[in-house]
Amino acid sequence: MSTQTNNQSLIERLFGVGAHFGFKKSRRHPSVTPFLFGTKEGNDIFNLEQTSDLINSAKDVVKEAAMNGKTILFVGTKTEVVESVKAAAVKAEMPYVVNRWIGGMITNLSEIKKRIFRMEELVREQESGELERKYTKKERLLLGRELTKLNHNFFGISKMTKTPDIMVVVDPRHDAIAIKEAQFMNVPVIGIMSSDCNVKDVTYPVLVNDALQGSVKLVLEELVASIAEGKAAYVPKVVAPRPVSTTPRSDYRPRTPRA
User: Fold this and answer.
1) Does position 44 have pLDDT exceeding 80, yes or no?
2) Do residues 22 and 64 share a domain?
3) Domain containing residue 124
4) β-strands 96-97, 166-170 pairing
5) Would the pTM count as exceeding 0.70?
6) What is the C-alpha to C-alpha distance for residues 144 and 147, in angstroms, rounded to an integer?
7) Which GO molecular-function terms appear in the entry (predicted)?
8) Measured in whole angstroms, how far is the alpha carbon of residue 93 from the centre of its chain?
């Protein structure tokens, strides 16, 4: 299938899920104007040909990242996209944040890791029965609440050992703190955004209706498919062992054994 046919198919699917509908013109951020086809009954309408090109650019980025074993963090905390973002991240085997962005998740990762370690410690004690042996009923209740909160906030990034190489953020305006931390850490951001967002806040904008589940899900599925392609081509780097020299150094002097 040719690239043109692929693009046409993507445009039709985007149209089918209503991805072309932006918000009211009064809510428009000036930076999105070049990506609009026009307005209809006061609502902005995206140019789906441009949107298709933006999606393909984002797909190339995540595919290359996956080919090189990079980490892609998925972020989307507003209610209507939580399930789609989580499902996409799980399928791509990548970390995610869907409940709440805790300040410092990437700018102060060392502290966040301490909270993750605490969560894992409580899970181990719970599974081994140690909680039952060590603590009273009241203490176990408090620890259970602590574990629930830690799971809620950090489970999605519990396997993230370093700063992500790329972030995919649904509605950068809603998750503005995540965007600011990414900017501070120079982490490129793919922003799935509607007409009320600032295109300049992200590295790779994708202009679609970010309030419709079908619209967001379609874009995420396209990205996840490209990540899978990249992973299939990923070849881990093999570090060759350093050769052991049998030639003594010129400054080598044998040590005299102690008596």
Assistant:
1) yes
2) yes
3) 107-160
4) unpaired
5) yes
6) 5
7) structural constituent of ribosome
8) 10
Token couple for 86: 């989580």
Strand partners, 75: 97, 169
Give the domain-ending residue among 160, 183, 202.
160
- For residue 183, the tally of other CB atoms under 10 A from its CB is 13
What backbone torsions phi and psi does residue 94 show, to the nearest 5 degrees?
-125, 160
> Exposed e or buried b for every residue in 232-241, given b needs 16+ CB within 10 A?
eeeeeeeeee
Neighbours of 135 (CB within 10 A): 14
Tokens standing for residue 54: 């933006």
Radius of gyration of the chain (CA): 24
What gap in Å lies between CA 43 and CA 28, rounded to an integer? 9
Q: How far apart are the first and last CA of the chain?
A: 81
Average pLDDT in the 27-41 region? 93
Confidence check: pLDDT of 230 > 90? yes
> Which tens digit of pLDDT belongs to each residue from 116-160?
999 999 999 888 888 888 888 898 899 989 999 999 999 999 999
- β-strands 36-40, 43-46 pairing: antiparallel
Q: Indicate if 116 and 222 belong to the same structural domain.
A: no
pLDDT digits (tens, 9 = 90+) for 197-224: 999 999 999 999 999 999 999 999 999 9
233: its two tokens: 């081509």
Tokens 């029965």: give the residue.
129
One-letter amino acid at 98 equals V
